[in-house]
Amino acid sequence: MEDNPKKLGIRRITRDFPPAHFLFKVEAFSLLAKTGVEKYESDAFEASGYKWRLSLYPNGDNKSNGNGFISLYLVIEETENLPLTWEVNVSFRLFVLDQIRDKYLTIEDGDGAVKRFHWMKTEWGFAQLISLDSFNDTCNGYLVGDCCIFGAEVFPLARNCKWECLSMVKQPEDNTIIFKMDHFSKLDRKYYESSVHTIGDSKWKLTVYPRGNVKFKGKALSVFLELVEANKLPPKRKVYAEYKLRVRNQMNDNHMEFSVERWFSATSVNWGYPQFMTLKVVHDPSKGYIVCDSLIVEAEINLVSQVKRFS
């Protein structure tokens, strides 16, 4: 809501033609003012695809320095049907009809400022639209026969803004990939992959090399977490994850695990440890990592970034 018109540069001019979108007539204005009502809201009207109404303070909006003035505001309506991140930018004018001269006093921001309506700010206008002294002076023509007419025209600006929201999600739901590798001693492929799990808004899988990869082949178990479909990410998009890679000890809680903090991208799709643990330790029956010829490998993601886009 506006306050001091001089400070904020309110522009007042007269014109011959009526407002483009809405006229609001009040009969027996003095009786309305005497009821003590703080404000009266008109019925809704449509302008450029949106619903609006006028909010009239016949004795001024005292909360916004409107004492001694008529206060008038433009209010957007039916916003519950708009998108979650709705925003409407408009240029608007409010009017008071001079009924003697058949001219409209036009009130608008002096600098032609565009006003932004959104879920936290659903009304804009003028606390000091016109002084009550000037309004009540019959020579000015605003109040004739205890009748007055207000008006509005509203011109929304086209908006094609897109929103992107980056969230860092701590302890996301279903955040652990459990990969049980049965018949471990008989596995003969170079590597094995777990099923794909969605954690946050990304898809993940484990890749395990039972006999190690690259220079640790035949020496160590290699374990990696992979961002699935990373090649489908938009250019420059990255996904952050804080996670633990773990081989479960099936005899006690002395698991082998390492913590990782990593940004994944289309050029960095996986990250882990080629030398996660030696094969000697893995296959030692007394260590408890292989039980009934099964090894259990896990990835627990405790923090992950996710992106939502809105239009």
Task: Characterize this entry briefly.
The chain is mainly β and 311 residues long. It has four helices and 22 strands. The two termini are 28 Å apart.
Plain-language structure description:
By secondary structure, this protein is mainly beta. The protein folds into two domains: 5-156, Apoptosis, Tumor Necrosis Factor Receptor Associated Protein 2, Chain A (Sandwich), CATH 2.60.210.10; 164-310, Apoptosis, Tumor Necrosis Factor Receptor Associated Protein 2, Chain A. 6% of the residues lie in helices and 51% in strands. The protein is built from four helices and 22 strands. It has helices spanning 5-8, 29-34, 132-136, 279-283; strands spanning 10-15, 22-27, 40-41, 45-47, 50-57, 69-77, 87-98, 103-109, 115-118, 123-131, 147-156, 163-170, 176-181, 192-193, 197-199, 202-209, 220-228, 239-247, 256-264, 270-278, 290-291, 294-310. The strands form four sheets. Strands 1, 2, 7, 8, 9 and 11 form a six-stranded antiparallel sheet that branches. Strands 12, 13, 18, 19, 21 and 22 form a six-stranded antiparallel sheet that branches. A hairpin with a 4-residue loop joins strand 7 and strand 8 (103-109). The radius of gyration is 34 Å and the shape is rod-shaped. It starts with a helix and ends with a strand.
